[in-house]
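okkk here we go again. third time trying to get the magnesium ion bound version out, last two times i messed up the smiles copy paste (missing a bracket lol). double checked this time i swear
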Amino acid sequence: MPNEIVLSADRIVKTYTVGKRTVEAVKEISFDVFKNEIFALLGPNGSGKTSTIKMLLGLTLPNAGCINMLGFQIPKDVNKVLGHTGAILEGARNLYWHMSVMENVYYFANIKGKEVAQVKEPMELWAEKLNMANNLNMPVGRLSRGMQQKAALICCLAMNPSILILDEPLLGLDVMTMFEMEDAIRELKKYTTVILSSHNLRFVERVADRLAILKEGSLIAMGPINELKKSISLFQFRLTLQKREANWGYLQDIESMHSKGVKVKVTEVDDYTDIVELTLSQPELIFDIMSTLKEYNAVPIEISTLGESFEEVFLSLIERGEQLEACV
Ligand SMILES: Nc1ncnc2c1ncn2[C@@H]1O[C@H](COP(=O)(O)OP(=O)(O)OP(=O)(O)O)[C@@H](O)[C@H]1O
Ligand SMILES: [Mg+2]
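finally!!
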């Protein structure tokens, strides 16, 4: 079935009270996650990603809103989905250190009501893929941090979860291990649905089908990366202009459009060429820019849209925040 929804969060809110202070960590956000997709939560530090993930897992209670996972209400029916979900939390060590990786897998299988025979094959499969086949009998406490992270992932995957939730799966990993994790996560799509959070934009760009961007607890954008790029390219342009004595005034006129919502950054390439980067609050403002250029007979020799790199898109969305409502 195309786009079958496996998780739905509807206007969820999380507020923490610390002494007399109240922190609105998550402010009425809503999103759906589709079967077998990789859905990424992105946002600056403190934007509410971990709080959202903890609510999805029933580890913390939402102050308002509903979560439906695999047809069950969270947190009310969280026990009914435990056997179908796996999670690795930010920096948390989910495993028992004195036991080997394999003993951990069998121990958690037992808790989840699964037989050793059910989990042995996926455990060996993922241990192989993650280059951990020789470490299955090692006590977790004696593995390196990257290996522990991989062991935690193997332990989750051995249970064949329908939904896997990973908060910062690349935290503290070296480049090689990051690539191994990335390959494994990309492959996971065949087996399960993945919800992850990460600050590593390159990784997210490579693995995620759709992403949701949080800023100060609000959802400011959501959709496939290409859609987000397109939405940005309507607002950001780079013009290369030939400077001539007769057209010097155009720049001043464009800069004076600031109050209308035009932001300008000029780079002088040489005595004859300017590169003008424009950020517009409305795509239609490009007509005003073009009229001004026409007035001064300043013909752009090159026009391009920004937003080609995901970093640019991300920063631009964060900068503009609430102006861009969730799309797609
Ligand atoms: N247990 C808690 N008690 C009080 N405030 C909390 C608690 N957990 C999180 N917060 C606050 O809620 C806000 C959101 O935090 P959260 O950990 O969800 O952000 P995050 O997006 O995961 O950040 P990071 O990228 O740093 O992991 C922050 O202001 C944080 O200080
Ligand atoms: Mg976090």
